[in-house]
Amino acid sequence: MNNRGNGNCLFLAIADQLRSRHLNARQIRLSACEYMLEHRELYEEGFTEEEDIEQYISSMRNDGYYGDGRLFAAICAKFGVRIRIRMIGEVVFDEGDASAPIVELGYIGHINYVSIRRERIY
């Protein structure tokens, strides 16, 4: 699947990793956004007066709006997974409960997330 350049690559890659749960990219995007708002006290620190959490979520709910690292903790918590991101063979980011199933993503060219498939699906 070519997901490059459409702003949905993070959510498409996670949907691929969670394919056994029958979730699509849109559902993952909206669920993560709602989770952040419901638990805003956990996430507000990452925002400023220039862009508060409500403004961020208002934009992030839209297809084509590029996902970023501020969503990772909410995705981990909402879906009970651990996110591991690789760039050229090394892990550059690892977040979530150490005992949770791993969602493994590649980050290519600092602009595109892809799913790294393993034998098991969660």
UniProtKB/TrEMBL annotation:
Q: Which residues form the OTU domain?
A: 1-105
- Gene Ontology BP terms: protein deubiquitination
GO molecular function: any one?
cysteine-type deubiquitinase activity
Domain of life, per lineage: Eukaryota
Q: Quote the protein name from its UniProt record.
A: OTU domain-containing protein
What organism does this protein naturally occur in? Streblomastix strix
What is this organism's lineage? Eukaryota, Metamonada, Preaxostyla, Oxymonadida, Streblomastigidae
